[in-house]
Design a protein that fits this description.
With about 750 residues, the protein is an alpha/beta fold. Helix content is about 25%, strand content about 30%. The protein contains 17 helices and 33 strands. The strands form seven sheets. Strands 8-9-14-15-16-17-18-19 form an eight-stranded parallel β-barrel, surrounded by six helices. Strand 25 (about 580-590) and strand 26 (about 590-600) form a beta hairpin. Helix 8 (about 300-310) runs parallel beside helix 11. The longest helix is centred in the first third of the chain and has 18 residues, at about 1-20. The radius of gyration is 30 Å and the shape is globular.
């Protein structure tokens, strides 16, 4: 029977070797700091043994490898504590001083993974698993002889998950931790508390989870608009959730098995509506409306210290995050208790009162053998001596703190806010704010030149942040993380001298298959088609270039607006056109579409002679690119910060477009924007379009009244009209600004009109 099994396995190897005679060098992410391939291969068979120490950690990591080979190659490996040949050996060595370093060697005797601690051995195992995946390329467990010597550049390699805005069950949190572990990340910042949701059980204050963990769902309002804490069984729609202490311990233990530290965040002194609506006696007005703890009330500190005393035993690592960002201080300035505190402590302003608050809490946290870390606003008024700063408002706060001798984690919104868009397509899922694409993350350097050479050791590393205002599901969270987390892992693990962007692009392309095989929902945004249009004055032709961020894989397209297939025209050179075209382009990878398509109509009615006259000037901060912005073939995306929008505050948008010569036209269209949830930009109430041959007498071709849309999410409203073809030399467009914002809007003041890209045909 044993001979028969060996014969079958030999035939299997012969079969796969016909498909893949030489094992594939798939590449590893993050890139090891030394990797040397050599001649020869080693094949893992069912006679190969996994050797480890007889310790809990050794047996656990060995079991992970047993599961990996069973799942990926249907090979059931035995384990042993006896050193032998034809083995995968997990070795603890006293050499070196970096507990996360490892060496991986493949020779004719087998595989050895050596680390000073099991941290390093675990990372070596992650590398081994990548050398044997994806299945799309690897069909047999054959390894090149290789020598890898590796250690991380930075000790803090993290990601924050916000579970306050939207609650993620513990199993979803574990899957996020799996993704971090795959990429050798070692810090999971768990944003458990914020203004619109308290997520952690505190026995001394049961209302925090009985009421603070739940909120009323209000029609046409985002969770933070008119937030109202409630009880789970309240009449009407209620949203929320929390983690019991048992849940917390389970997640922390799960992360620890993957050598990831869990850092809890308990927000203070602001962003605390959820807690203070449960215990309003700790606010300045006694009503819980401000969301800021009263700094003049000793009860506030007692309340928070009691909470911290219950939190500390759940998290065995040294850091505790207190938030400290965006503290609204107006309540303090109108509070007699806070004013007395300022007098008693000789504090000159609200910033120094915030510093007093943070320093007082730091002393207590330090007494619990924890180290306080907070967002860079804790610099305001003076930083506690032992505090660590997490710099999110750019690099400046981190630079200031490091140069003053404080430890820093760099976490700037650009490029490390993963709730921001990663692609330019209007079809991207909901996001918040700006644009952080894959290679922008790859280029992240946590040590700016402005930090003095003798202070650079204070930069502990970097961290991405995934805020969940717009992210409600694990699938959406994975989409926002991947593949950007892959790029960040290399930015934080690999020595800058070993980084190579072109090689990373090749390796991330392979990594996509690993994501697919793990059923991770990753973004194809870096492969999605982008465009650039130029006008050639010499021959009066327009030139359309198609590309994607990574410059790999196929782009196929049609010019009649139909959806491209794998058999459609392959883009190989710029497309020249003299008549309007409806472009529909799609990236294809291994014969399958990936990323969102490009769907645009590019017109030709605007040549170099075209001029625009504005009745009311656009705002210089929202110029859209200047006076050619309305017809420069650059379409704005559904983000208020997209530089292609042209903005008009208070007044109407009204322009006359002089085409420079008659054009036979039958269509005019343009885009307007609205985002009530984050801006004062609203759709116009009426749009009128007229055409003329002489610029004096205009014939109305569209007079459209727009209904008010109360949806808080971003909207692009396309206004278009078709008419009988005729010569047109001038186009007049007016859009009525609604003026004063309605009472139900989250903001006060006047509305803006945002407009972009007039197209004609």
């Amino acid at each position: 029977m044993k001979f028969f099994k060996l014969l079958i396995f030999f035939l299997f190897l012969v079969t796969v070797s016909c498909k893949n005679k030489v094992p594939v060098k798939t590449g590893v992410i993050p890139q090891p700091n030394l990797i040397e391939y050599q001649q020869g291969t080693f094949t893992v068979t069912d006679n190969t043994v996994i050797v480890s120490e007889n310790s809990e950690e050794g047996k656990r990591i060995a079991a992970e490898l047993v599961s990996f080979f069973d799942k990926n190659f249907n090979i059931k490996l035995n384990t042993s504590t006896k050193i032998q040949d034809n083995a995968i050996q997990l070795i603890i060595s006293e050499d070196g001083d970096n507990k996360e370093a490892y060496q991986l060697n493949v020779t004719k005797k087998g595989v050895s993974i050596t680390g000073k601690t099991y941290h390093g051995v675990f990372y070596g195992v992650q590398t081994l698993k990548q050398l044997l995946t994806p299945k799309a390329l690897i069909n047999a467990p054959i390894l090149h002889f290789v020598h890898i010597k590796d250690a991380p550049e930075f000790g803090w390699r993290g990601m924050m998950l916000d579970v306050s805005r939207h609650f993620f069950p513990k199993d979803s949190v574990k899957k996020v931790i799996d993704i971090l572990a795959m990429h050798k990340m070692n810090k999971f910042h768990w944003h458990l508390v914020d203004g619109i949701g308290w997520r952690i059980q505190i026995d001394k204050y049961p209302e925090l989870i009985e009421k603070g963990a739940w909120r009323k769902v209000k029609e046409n309002k985002k969770p933070w608009e008119g937030f109202e804490a409630t009880y789970k069984d309240t009449e009407g729609e209620v949203y929320g959730g929390f983690y019991t202490k048992a849940d917390i311990k389970e997640v922390v233990a799960y992360a620890a098995e993957r050598y990831i530290d869990v850092i809890p965040e308990i927000e203070m002194p602001g962003h605390s509506e959820a807690a203070l609506q449960c215990y309003p006696e700790f606010t300045c007005d006694g009503e819980g409306t401000s969301g800021v703890y009263c700094a003049g009330n000793d009860g506030s500190f007692e309340f928070l210290q009691n909470i911290i005393s219950e939190v500390v035993p759940l998290f065995p690592y040294k850091y505790l995050h207190i938030g400290g960002d965006e503290v609204g201080k107006s309540a303090w300035l109108n509070c007699k208790k806070c004013q007395k505190r300022m007098q008693d402590e000789n504090l000159e302003n609200a910033e120094e009162l915030q510093s007093y608050f943070v320093k007082r809490m730091e002393k207590f946290i330090h007494s619990k053998n924890k180290k306080l870390i907070g967002w860079d606003e804790i610099l305001e008024g003076g930083l506690p001596e032992r505090a660590t700063v997490m710099s999110w408002r750019g690099f400046e706060g981190g630079i200031e703190a490091a140069n003053a001798g404080h430890d820093v984690v760099m976490s700037p919104g650009s490029p490390l806010y993963f709730d921001h868009n990663q692609g330019k397509s209007e079809f991207e899922p909901p996001s918040w704010g700006g644009y952080n694409n894959l290679l922008k993350v790859y280029d992240f350097n946590p040590v700016p030149d402005a930090i003095a050479a003798d202070k650079r050791h204070h930069i502990l590393g970097g961290q991405a942040n995934l805020w969940t205002e717009q992210i409600k599901t694990l699938s959406h969270a994975q989409y926002m993380m991947l593949p950007r987390l892959s790029a960040l892992s290399e930015a934080l693990w690999t020595n800058p001298n070993q980084k190579n962007k072109n090689e990373f692009i090749k390796r991330i392309d392979v990594h996509f298959d690993r994501f697919k095989e793990l059923n991770y929902h990753f973004a194809g945004s870096s492969l999605a088609p982008d465009y650039n249009v130029t006008y050639n004055k010499a021959d009066k032709t327009f030139v359309l270039e198609l590309k994607n961020e990574l410059g790999i894989n196929e782009i196929r397209y049609t010019l009649d607006g139909t959806a491209p297939t794998v058999n459609s025209e392959l883009y190989t050179a710029p497309i020249r056109y003299t008549k309007p075209i409806n472009v529909h382009a799609q990236a294809f990878r291994n014969g399958e579409p990936i990323g969102f398509p490009l769907k645009k109509m590019f017109s030709t009615g605007f040549g170099d002679k075209c001029k625009v006259t504005y009745t009311h000037p656009y705002n210089e901060s929202y110029s859209g690119g200047g006076e050619q912005a309305l017809f420069n073939n650059k379409f704005a995306n559904p983000r208020g910060d997209d530089p292609n929008w042209q903005g008009f505050p208070k007044k109407d948008f009204e322009v006359i477009l002089d085409l420079g010569e008659p054009n036979a036209l039958s269509y005019v269209g343009l885009n307007f924007f609205q985002h009530i949830g984050a801006t004062s930009v609203m759709l116009p109430t009426q749009v009128v379009i007229g055409i003329s041959e002489d610029g004096k007498a205009f014939k109305t071709i569209l007079d459209k009244t727009l209904e008010t849309v109360k949806d808080r999410d971003p909207i692009i409203k396309r206004i278009e009209t078709e008419f009988e073809k005729q010569d047109v030399s001038f186009i007049k467009i007016s859009a009525k600004n609604r003026g004063q914002l309605p009472e139900w809007h989250i903001r006060n003041g006047f509305a803006w009109v945002f407009v972009d890209e007039v197209t004609v045909k």
